[in-house]
Amino acid sequence: MGRTVDIDVGGTFTDLVLTWDDRRITAKAPTTPYDLSVGFLDVLTDGAEQLGKDIDELLPDIELVRYSTTVAMNRLIERKGPRLGLLTTEGHEDAILIGRGAQWTDGTRISERRNLAIQRKPEPLVTRDMIAGIRERVDSFGQVLRPLDEDDVRRKLRRLVDGGARAIAVSLLWSFANPAHEKRIREIIREEYRSYHVGYLPVVLSHEVVGKVGEYERTMTAVLDAYLQSSIKAEMEQTWDQLREHGYRGSFLLTHNTGGSAEIFKTTASRTYNGGPIAGLMGSYHIGQALGFRNVIASDVGGTSFDLGMVVDASVRSYEFRPIIDRWMVGISMLQATTMGAGGGSIAWVNELLGNRLEVGPRSAGSYPGPVCYDLGGTEPTTTDADVVLGYIAPDGYFNGRMPLDRDKAAEAIRVKIAEPLGVSVDEAAALIRQVIESTMASAIQREVHLRGYHPEDFVLFAFGGGGPTHVAGYGADVPTAVIFPQAPVFSALGSSVMDVMHVYEQSKRILFLNGMTQELTADHEAYNAPIRDMVAQARADLTSEGLDPDEAVFTVELDMLYGGQVQVKRVSSPLLEIHSEADAAAVYDAFEKEYSEAFSPHVVNKPGGAYIESIIVKATVPQEKLELPVHELGGADPSAARTTSREAYWPELARRVDTPVFAFDRLTPGHRVEGPGLVEAEFTTIVVPPGRVLAIDEHGLGLLQHASPVETSAPTPVLEGAPA
Amino acid sequence: MSFPPLAEKLAALKVSAPSEDELSCLDAVATGAYEIGVQRTADILDEGYEVFMRSSRSQMGVAGDSIVAIFNAQGDLVNASAGTYLHAVIPPIVIKFILARFRQNPGIADGDIWYTNDALYGGIHNPDQVAIMPVFFEGELVAWTAALSHTTETGACEPGGMPVSAKSRFDEGMNLPPMKIGHNHVLRDDVIEMFAAFGLRSETSVTVDLRARCTTADRVRVRLLEMFAREGRDFVVGLFRKMLMEAEAGSRKRLSSWPDGTYRCATFSDAAGMENGLLRNCYMTMTKSGDHLEVDFTGTSPENGSSYNAHPQAVIGHLANYIYEYVFHDLPISSATFQPIDFVFPENSMLSPAPNAATSCAVMAATGAMSAIANCVGRARFGTAEWRQVSAALGNGGNASVLAGVSQWGMPFADMLAYTINTEGSGGRSTADGINAYGFPWCAFGRAPDVENMENELPMLVPFSQHWEDSGGAGKYRGGVGTAQLWVAHHAPFVVFMSIADNSIIQTPQPLFGGYSQCTCPGLTMEDVDIPELLRAGDEGRLDLASLLEGKYGGRIVSESYARTARPVTGDQVITLGISTGGTGYGDPLDRDPEAVERDLTDGMISEWAATHVYGVRFNAQTGRVDLSGTAELRAERMRARIAGGRTWDDFHADWSTRKPPEEILGLYGSWPDAAVVTPLMRM
């Protein structure tokens, strides 16, 4: 299995999966926001110790380090990036401030948008005075309408630098169709500010980060890359230096939100956004494949968020419809991962306007002050407080015993803020808090599953993150089986350990693929093949420069296509790398029609309007070694050998407290069955097994949480004829 | 009578009295289960809303200009997911009409699909169409579902579904009263054929959107049945009733906190269809007493011979846009939230016209009501704990333009240019400016396209696209500005252009507390200027609206009404200046923070002229920064001038009440000054 290090730097914890030949070691350490390399070294030291080594002995033998991070997101939230300048086409300076109108809705939840009186557009990353319009213009055919005025560039560049610009984004209209003006502007900047100058200016050209139509999304991607580059670079440099200092000589890969990973030197900042949840999703995909599951729901319950990703029909090729980073639409393709404000820190409150309705979230107590039971000054009861009060989480066992919790304070907060206003007991109130938040999570799962035309019964649910195993019995009720991994609390890092190296290239190019009037498919095959050949050549060069063998890479083509007169673009997988005949073109069109009608509705297929290709995407994937799950013989069902203690816990199903057996996850062996009510403690999490459920340990040592008796399903409901799934 | 009279429509908006059965079912809804049930209805609706957008063909459907809703068995709206709240008012009227008239013949059965787009029977205007399905659980009618959206073709006398030249409902194409268009879960082919025939100009849009509505209503029905099966019939029936009761209680609680009083607002417009003239398009008297609100439209101009009329429920729908976004934003979209509100509509006014009136541009006729409610409610709430919610009226110009021809891809096209309608400014607020280019007042979440997408899809060039300087109403808190784009025909020998709007002479929305109204929207075109040629020549002039208006590009500037009938424009010539209106101002501009004025100037939101003459701000000639003491002096001077020019109420009234606009612009107004019907309108 090789020797690799996979790190996931989250907002609260830094997780490690250390693969050492046939061993897989996990560790967790608090994230150190002041210097992330400290938490990185802490968790690495912990992992090394588990191997009986010190870090200087470990690192020279490590072949690969992969890293996913939330730093990009945190920098955005804190607005701690450098002052930027933006050079754009004259007359279009306001594009990123107008933000296609309702910019204020981007990155917000539906429930947050209703109150129009309090809405604001996000604080811009580039203020209007730092945006300069350049005299130039290219039209939609890539033809130069207005030549680049170089004196104008120099004048405006000087103004931006005088205004304090520390990095420059350049985004001109139609630059992806004709990049000559953007490239020349970079040359001019380099002429004016040499790389050896103290005030060296990083420059990001929009066509190099996004090669497709849509100036708002493309410009914002360039702006974000310029904005985040220095902070991510600083973080990476600290970590990189530490790795080198301790003897590491291998590659350093970053997890991308495309579902692959690539060398740090080939990574733009926006590609690292949401890396953790995507790593969790990709882990679910690869492990699901190993286990033979075609449909997997990947669910991650953390301190502040609930992340959800879907593996459907053994594929994760589902992209965000309108990809957003923080509050900004971007032009890059990101795998779809739903994030909602529901986690251990979600605050419970009573909505008096709606007849004392109990609500949980989306506000979160975060990690500081955190839940009341942390005793760091938090006063609002949270999900974790409910877990502690109910007896599910042992106050002296949280975070492997390293963080003692104050159960009494949690109970008092729930009594005052929830139980008394609702007129119920503290236990009942705590159970209601869990019920409400788990129901919110369950609803999100149902919605995601239904929108893809499936039912929850068609899936298995992977529950991970520190809170996944604690709540999955509640939020996964419609899914017959929840799978809980021994590495659940560090699952995203585990996921990154099985991710492929992948590069994604995109070019916007409108091709009339099916003529609406004649119903003839395109005969200009070269228009289709030429950009693909260019991108494959670029990919081969990039892989070679990373020390990889391009002949080992798998190249695939995806297309953004739509029908004439429509606005819904669909990303479809092309069955062919190139087309050379009418039959080839027909195969590509048929694939589009099938995917389009499945995604939207068969009723919106509009051949008379013609079919267009908007963008062509080439993926170069170098497969990495996959996880092999050990197979053990199943033993007896009696888990009593793994029982460590018992404690009182309240079970709403029984409406009372009962003395509940507690088991150690690492002592349960294949074949064991823990009947609910029961609690199973692992290093950084607790699996809650309510009455009526059973946790069975399978042949791979994984926990399968199921109903003790099968759930009845009702007869199918008749549906409208011709309705899409 | 064949259609529901006003009293029946207004009664249908009220929540039905709970039955004994429903009251007994309340016991099945325990704390905890209730919250989860509410969330489940919201999730079902959100799923339906998503399915609706994905299944729709028309741009507005795709953008989410729609609503998906759940009703109890009596037809009361329980909850909805929406981009357009105005649609919430429609289905209860239609469902209750179906229950009252068609229960026996043709009967209401499981698998039925009901449909209507007729404003006479409860709709907004006929491009807005609704599919409704009954939900039967174990043989009992337990609920209804509905999906409603706008389609831009109805087979009217002009393309696009909103014919400005329609003179009666008989010019407006398909008007379908509530009828069963499918049974046994099958949509009838002959009905689809009828839709296709009415929608010949854009057949696919019409039939695909029809199916999308039916698909969505059915999806919600299926999910509701799953909920009934899982949670039990009594729970869901009790849940729906409890949701209605709590929404009403929440609504009454909020209204109770406002001071009792009478609040009035008059709004005006400058055109009805293609006929120019002054109209008092809304005269609102809002009386608040205890937990009750009455909204009276007496004093609104008479109905007119154009399509700029709105039936009463369409007017109430336009109030719902404001009410659900600013007043009951934290309550469900539910019939119950309107329970404490009553309405009075004067007969034969443009907000309650005769049955044969054309109403396809009802959304333009109702802009007055949409902005007057913001004004009245804003004043009612200002002295309450909710003062932070107070906001001056949104821009609501709805400057819609249509471009048609053969595209650069060789394909015929006819499309609405979505940029201007989706970038209007919002009103100044009690704590902040309005949002610049905030969105579309009828569907706040609608999005404007990228310029590159416009140029990619259509044979046009957009030389500039910018915030429109000085377009937001001035105020202590400025109205958000709109946008301005120059549109040029490009890559085609010619295109055909038309547009729909008013507000070229007078703006409808009224500002608040001394703020100013936004500027008007002229229809500006430049003749005899080849913009691409100017660009090729490397012209050094700055490319923006100010330069255009100063004549720096040459050519001849033509100013007309924004509404223009179809006309051809040859290649590389200017089509028009596409503009979206700003929001109204809040508070006295002389109270505006001078530094905010400086920032506005830097950001291009206001001109130097406005900074000095409207906001009374002086700048240091050397640094360009605000001169605080100079500003204080200038403002004091302005205040003294105001006081010096002041008059007593009696003096003012004596003069004001004798003034009257010229007769030639009062043809649409009604009697002066009361706007009563002078001559009954005859329609053929």
TrEMBL record, chain A:
Q: Which residues form the Hydantoinase/oxoprolinase N-terminal domain?
A: 5-192
- Which Pfam family is an annotated match for this chain, by its short name? Hydant_A_C
Record-annotated Hydantoinase A/oxoprolinase domain positions: 218-503
Annotated ranges, domain Acetophenone carboxylase-like C-terminal = 527-702
**Could you tell me the superkingdom of the organism this chain comes from?**
Bacteria
**UniProt protein name:** Hydantoinase/oxoprolinase family protein
Q: What organism is the protein native to?
A: Actinomycetospora flava
TrEMBL record, chain B:
What highest taxon heads this organism's lineage? Answer: Bacteria
Against InterPro entries, the record matches this protein to: Hydantoinase_B, Oxoprolinase-like
* Residues covered by the Hydantoinase B/oxoprolinase domain: 35-589
Q: What is the protein name stated in its UniProt record? A: Hydantoinase B/oxoprolinase family protein
Record the organism. Answer: Actinomycetospora flava
